[in-house]
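Friendly challenge for the regulars: who can give me the structure tokens for this chain first? No prize, just bragging rights.
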Amino acid sequence: MVLLEINGGTRNFNPEDNSEKAYFPGFALKMMEEGELKKIVDSKLKIEEDDERIYTAIKVALWCIQGNMSQRQWPKWFKCLKVAVLYLSLQDILR
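First reply, four minutes later:
Bragging rights claimed.
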């Protein structure tokens, strides 16, 4: 969740917001499904147009979030983290 909040520049829930953005993870998932991840990236982040790392980080963050609380288990989260670290490490090696 923290990874998603950092990239989006917002908390996961804003009770004062009455729009679909009130629950940020749900909004982020909708934007990913619509191919509009650019809409959820924090405008304060300085990223280059062709830098896919931010979008990869958002996708990994969404993979790690389980909609059903009973499915939120440490091993699943840890596997997501290992995938993210491995992917980002490979990207640095390939550059």
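The first helix runs from residue 2 to 8. The CA atoms of residues 60 and 84 lie 6 Å apart. Your move, everyone else.
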